[in-house]
């Protein structure tokens, strides 16, 4: 499982060891799957390229490897997809439950790199709240409904179904 924040800036190499660029964004379809990775090509102009996630040979700890670069194409926006930063950005978009509860602002996505399925959303309530209470991670069994102003997610009820069971928090640092 990966997060977008871990992929951002990661170098992408072809099978010959040639650097093709760095990850600058991901494309998310309406079905709630990561379909493509956006690369910022090396060079002065730095064109953006689309890399289908199924063309990736391996996601390493320090780089992404491709079997070949035939799947690369020049990036063009598509009406049916969203990105984290570029076209129709999802970053910092309101996340609501199906019951209308404000969950927070989208800060990151967790996805299975082999197939691109998004399995969770990291939400923030702001800098000070994140320090005091930690960020929340929403696990979702179904794709979100992405609207112009908000993302509607079905919250996976864990254990007892209480609010504190639904949203796991990142561990807080202990004061020294």
UniProtKB/TrEMBL annotation:
<dbReference type="InterPro" id="IPR011033">
    <property type="entry name" value="PRC_barrel-like_sf"/>
</dbReference>
<dbReference type="Pfam" id="PF05239">
    <property type="entry name" value="PRC"/>
</dbReference>
<dbReference type="InterPro" id="IPR027275">
    <property type="entry name" value="PRC-brl_dom"/>
</dbReference>
<protein>
    <submittedName>
        <fullName>PRC-barrel domain-containing protein</fullName>
    </submittedName>
</protein>
<feature type="domain" description="PRC-barrel">
    <location>
        <begin position="4"/>
        <end position="71"/>
    </location>
</feature>
<feature type="domain" description="PRC-barrel">
    <location>
        <begin position="92"/>
        <end position="157"/>
    </location>
</feature>
